[in-house]
Amino acid sequence: MSMAVVGMIAGMALGFAGYFGGFGAFLLVAALGALGFVVGRFADGDLDPGEFFRTRDRDGRRR
């Protein structure tokens, strides 16, 4: 499935949530969608949890 189709489906879900549930439902669906995206990237191995917790040197390089 292409990213365009995934984006279209996500947009339609947000549209339905906003129309039928109001602005609060729109925000809830958007937040849960973003959380699901990040968890999916972790599951695929595209993100490393350690990247969020490593410190940087003064030069901006990672230790």
TrEMBL record:
Superkingdom of origin: Bacteria
Keywords (A to Z) from UniProt: Membrane, Transmembrane, Transmembrane helix
Transmembrane keyword on record: yes
Transmembrane segments annotated in the record for this chain: 12-39
Entry keyword annotation includes Transmembrane helix: yes
Protein name: DUF2273 domain-containing protein
Species: Streptomyces klenkii
